Amino acid sequence: MITAIVFVEAAVDRIPEVATAIADIEGVTEVYSVTGRIDLIALVRVRSHDEVADVVADRLNKVDGVRSTETHIAFRAYSRHDLEAAFSLGS
């Protein structure tokens, strides 16, 4: 499974509509409205790099109101939940 984190700059007056449209794209699992330089963060979870390109370049970037994106591919996931689950296997 490949996870891509996509930073989205959106037209300010369309942020809710842009977020909803992005959330409706197959392969997008979550969309967060955030503070700071960017407006939204979308998490994309797919099986291949080609699918990342399909979701981000072919669909997400074409949502009306998306001004720009920056995509980051995750190498590893670290979370307290995962670590606690791993350590509790022997209990």
Please specify the SSE layout and strand pairing.
Elements: E1 2-10, H1 15-23, E2 28-33, E3 40-46, H2 49-59, E4 66-73, H3 80-87
Antiparallel strand pairs: 1-3, 1-4, 2-3
Strand elements, count: 4
Class in CATH? Alpha Beta
| Annotated CATH topology | Alpha-Beta Plaits
Sketch the major β-sheet.
4 strands, antiparallel
Query: Biggest sheet, strands in spatial order?
Result: 2-3-1-4
Sequence stretches where pLDDT stays below 50 over 5 or more residues: none
Strand content: 25-35%
Report on this model:
The chain is α+β, with helices and mostly antiparallel strands and 91 residues long. The protein has one domain: Lrp/AsnC effector binding domain/regulation of amino acid metabolism (RAM) domain (Alpha-Beta Plaits). 31% of the residues lie in helices and 33% in strands. The chain has 3 helices and 4 strands. Strands 2-3-1-4 form a 4-stranded antiparallel beta sheet. The radius of gyration is 15 Å and the shape is globular.
